[in-house]
Structure formats: structure tokens, C-alpha cells
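Work Package 3 (structural annotation) set out to generate three-dimensional models for the target panel prioritized at the project kickoff. During this period the team completed the workflow that converts sequence records into C-alpha cells, so that structures can be stored uniformly alongside our sequence database. As a representative example, we reproduce one entry of 496 residues exactly as it appears in the project archive.
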Amino acid sequence: MYNRWQHLQNLKTIFLKSVESVRPHNLLSSRNNYNLEPRSEGDRTIIQLQGKRVDITHKQCHAVGFGKAVLGMAVELEKALGDTLKQGILSIPKGSQQQFHEIKEMCLKEDTVFRVYEGAENNQPDMIALKAAKEIKSLAESLNENDIFFVLISGGGSALLPLPKDPITLTEKMQLIKNLSNKGASIQEMNQVRIALSSIKGGQLAMAASKASAVISFVISDIVGDPVDLIASGPTWVSATSTPRQTTPEEILNKYELWQDLPEHVKILITTGNDGEVMSQQNNSIYVVGDNRVATSAAVSEAMNCNYNPFIASTTMQGDVQDLTKTYCDFLAAIYDFQEGLIEEYELRKKFPFDSRIFQHFLKTLLMCQKSKKPLMLITAGEPTVKVSGSGLGGRNQELALRLSLEIYRRLRNVCFLSAGTDGIDGPTNAAGALACSEVVKDFLELNSKNICDLESFINNNDSYNFYKGVKQGDYHVVTGHTGTNVMDLHFFLLL
């Protein structure tokens, strides 16, 4: 039997295995049905993408990429295409190449054709990313029918591909998005506003490459539901028949009480929208090569190796972390009540916060736990939000873990929890996330006679990073550094 600390370490191991499963060299591979190495068929040269044959005979290949996971994709593309790849431009997070310089799968060739820009420190657009965006759009506009244009896209791509419409400045755009984030706007809402202010997002990069023989996008999804029109703000998503959104950028900004203070020139651009009619492009194709379903499946396999009974409850978790804490805790409490015979099955079903169609599958797993005496490991994934009202340092994963630690201490003594971002970065910190259990609170309370009010002050000040840094030498932190991938956040519950 494991002790509590070993269970927490197991959760970290499961997280790392999940992240490994969605690294680009595992996703953009022949075993995933991406055969990028050109091969001859008679007098033709082809590559295969998900069973689709793409003719690249006498074509020159060009590639651009932007996001936290595109360096590894570029390495795979460069390795497979060889001399067929003529040039490339990458916009990746600052420090990426240095961090991965000893990992073969993340290192471009010494004589690489890629020009690499490293910017957007702490996921904030900057002048380096702006320069990269201008060059990327210029390359797209230069292509013709003899060119194949590969576009590598992942989470973080919005910050790494900033090209505001005139006369909006980069500073104006950044401040508006920051204000939205601090108000608790979802990534979908923020990206809709980004698209309205951009001259490269919302399909405009694909339109710039409309004369190319083919525009082929490889996407690693970091948004719930894999909406390719919103991932990195959809720079290659072009559709003349897209359905109207439920809310417009103007309505989103009104919702968060930001519209009234906008400069008039920003309001005009947002309400005017894109000029001209959007036409669908026959040369444009988009492939989602990886998402959090791959990561949660890997978590199941590793959980079984740890002698747990895993169950994937959801890959689409959203909402504010404060509300999510209550949702999670109410359900966990109901599980314990059901196991102790205090409530009936129908009462447990009422507390089930996930898709009702999978409740019976969950119930079978729960009964299996009782028979086998193995712990239940509940797996969820998604992209929650956090409302920032304090001046502390942290991110949604660390704050969720801290809030749950307090509730576990108060209500649920036998739960271990991990919340971490698969990109390895949670907020503007060096942590991917954190662990939660009652011992987190006990260890804190033992520090210089601290009390619960002291802990709550960290929550109220959105200072989860400094809380975890100060408890048990930071052992409850989950620290990975940039992982080179990004498929949102993973939440693991272990019920002991």
C-alpha cells in the first residue's frame, strides 16, 4: 500500500506520462497516420495525411509555426520533408530552444531552413512576436501555385502572432486582452476579441496564402471542443458559411464592462469587422493532430499501472475555479456518502456534474473500486478561468489546487488532487500547477502558528504561487518548465 506522499508522487508521474503522450514527435508520426516523408508513386511524389494523399510533385514546401508546441512539430516536418522544405519561420516562447537543447526531438537541424523568433515572454505579445507575424504574413502573400504552405498551430499562438489592424497599437490590444483575462473571460471570448482586432487571425493568414497550391494546417488543440476557428484565434480557418456566434466581440466587451471605456477608433474597428466578403478556399485543409483526449487516455494507462481504477469524467471542464471547487467537492462528498450507504443511487446521479450519459459507466467503475479495494482515480480536463482581484502571483491550476486543499481539509480528508497545465506554465509563474490534500493545509498551519484566515488571505489575493512556494519547500508544486506541447489543463482526483 502507498502512503499519502507516494500517492501524490504517483499523480505527478501520471501527469508527466500524459504530457509525454501529446508531445509533437508522438502526435505528428506515422503511427498516428501522418506520413510526411515524400514517396514516389510512378512519376508523382506524395505525402499522406490521415489517409489523404497530397501530391507535392515539383512543389516547394514552406512552413510557419506559432505557439508553445510548434518547435517539436517543426522538427518532425523538417526531418520528414528533407530538401523539399525550402524555408520556414517560427514564433515560439522565449527560451524554448535553450530549454530543449538536449532533447533530440525538439532540436532543429544545425543548417535549418527555419528562421526562429523567440518572444511573448509570460504569454504576452511583444515586438519580437510582432516582427515574426509580419514576416509570416509576408511569406504567405509571396506564394503561388508551385508552393505548399504548412502552418503549425498550437496554444499560445495568439500571443506569438500579434498583428493588430491599423491604427490599433500592440500596447492597446494587449491591455484590452489583459483586462478581459482579469475579468474572468474565457479563452473563447478573448480569442473572438483578438480576431476582431487582428489583420492575420480569423482566417486572414490562409487568405494571404490563397494563391498557394495547398495550405495545410497542423493544430494541437488547447481549447475545449477543439474549435479550429478559435485555436490561436483561427488564422487559417476560412468559411463563407460559418454560423453566427451567440455573442459578438462588442457584446463580450459589454458583458465585462469594458466597451464604454474603449477609444473610438477601437470601437469602429470592432463594429466594422472584416472588409469584403469571406470566400471559402479549396486549397485549405486543417488537421487537429492532438488534443486532451490523447492525454487523458494516457493518464488511464498509467493510473492502471499504479493500481488505481481510472475514470475519464470530462475533457470539457470550464468555468471559474471558485465555482468549480464547489462543483467538484459536492460531487466528491456525494461519492463518499454513496459508498457509506448514506444516499441512494438516484441521489448520487443528481450530484453527477458531467454528461448524464456516462453516469452508468461511472457507477460501474465505482462498484469495481469497492470490489477490488483499489482507489478511484477521477480524471477531468479542460480550461477553467480565474477572476483576478488581488495582486498576488499564481494561475488557475494553483488556485484551484489551493481552494480544493482547504475544502478537502474541511470536508474530505481522504482525497489527493493534482491540477496542472500541459504546457508546463500556469499563469506568469514557473509552475505547471500544484497538488492538493488535507496535509497541504496541515503543513501550512504548522508554519509559525498560522491559521485558516492566513490561508484564505492567499486565496483572496490570488497568491497561490507564493503559498505553495512557502509550504514544505515547495514540494506540493508541480514544476516541469515549458513542455513543448499544450492541450489545456488536467485534473486528477484520487479517492482513498
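The first strand starts at residue 34 and ends at 41.
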